[in-house]
Design goal:
Blueprint: H1 3-17, H2 24-33, H3 44-49, H4 54-59, H5 64-73, H6 77-88, E1 93-100, E2 103-113, E3 118-122, E4 127-131, E5 135-140, E6 151-157, H7 162-174, E7 179-186, E8 192-198, E9 206-214, E10 220-228, H8 235-243, E11 247-248
Antiparallel strand pairs: 1-2, 2-3, 3-11, 4-5, 5-6, 6-10, 7-8, 8-9, 9-10
Helix pairs in contact: 1-6, 2-5, 5-6
Length: 251
């Protein structure tokens, strides 16, 4: 699980335990002992064989301390608050606030759990989600006649690191676009390498943006956005806010 998701777990746990500081020593003693969490008469091996609930499947690849702490807290009121907070991260539908062309807009987004190992929230009112075994495409419902197609496409290269993928994409873009910017490593809206290319600065010029994200297993998620220059503060901003909800999950 990536660091951004670990941070979310930490914040959720903090949220649920702010009013339970008196439990600190008990919690950490339990973590050190590790056996504290096993019900009487149940071995570690038999516990592992039990079918995990979806939330713990998601957390399985995260930090051991967070998982153990979460297990301990599940029987406490603060712990239940922490569980609820974590569940909110993957609720089927939620509201987000976006900055669009200088205005704040509340938008309903829906969870998409992809076969290729990530989750993202999609604005289904503005975009269609087209899925295949190799890629997910988030395509604008309304396309302008004679304008570049507007979409965000997410694929995965399983055997090549982001740095190598970035070099390949940059070289390819330089054969197609007069303006190519390799902005290197970024952390907003997502941790990854950013490459941007455009045919110019006129309102109808094509803009292509790539985010190359480490899949934590030796490969790369390739996130391609395409729109026209005037749509940078519209579709570009909407894609930005959707990407802030992108999380890698391991089945």
């Amino acid at each position: 699980m990536n660091d951004r998701f670990d941070d979310k777990i930490k914040k959720a746990l903090e949220y649920g335990t702010d009013n339970a500081l008196s439990q600190k020593e008990e919690v950490w003693n339990a973590i050190k002992a590790k056996t504290y969490f096993l019900p009487k008469g149940v071995s570690r091996m038999s516990r592992k064989r039990k079918k995990q609930k979806p939330i713990f499947k998601i957390l399985a690849a995260s930090t051991v301390a967070a998982a153990l702490l979460l297990t301990f807290l599940v029987e406490t009121e603060p712990g239940k608050a922490a569980i609820d907070k974590i569940k909110e991260m993957f609720e089927p539908q939620k509201n987000i606030v976006q900055d669009l062309e200088g205005n704040k807009e509340e938008t309903v987004v829906e969870l998409n759990h992809s076969k290729i190992g990530y989750v993202i929230y999609v604005d289904k009112e503005m975009y269609d989600l087209v899925k295949s075994d190799e890629a997910d495409r988030i395509v604008a419902k309304h396309q302008g006649e004679g304008l570049p197609e507007v979409f965000m496409e997410i694929t995965q290269i399983v055997d090549k690191a982001p740095s190598a993928v970035a070099a390949d994409i940059e070289n390819q873009l330089k054969t197609e676009f007069p303006i190519v910017e390799n902005r290197g490593q970024v952390s907003d809206p997502i941790d990854g390498r950013l490459i941007r290319a455009t045919t110019g600065n006129e309102w109808n010029d094509k803009v292509v943006v790539y985010y190359l994200v480490d899949n934590t297993q030796g490969g790369t998620f390739v996130i391609k956005q395409q729109y026209f220059f005037e749509a940078s503060e519209g579709h570009g901003s909407r894609f930005y806010h959707m990407l802030k909800e992108f999380e890698i999950v391991k089945e």
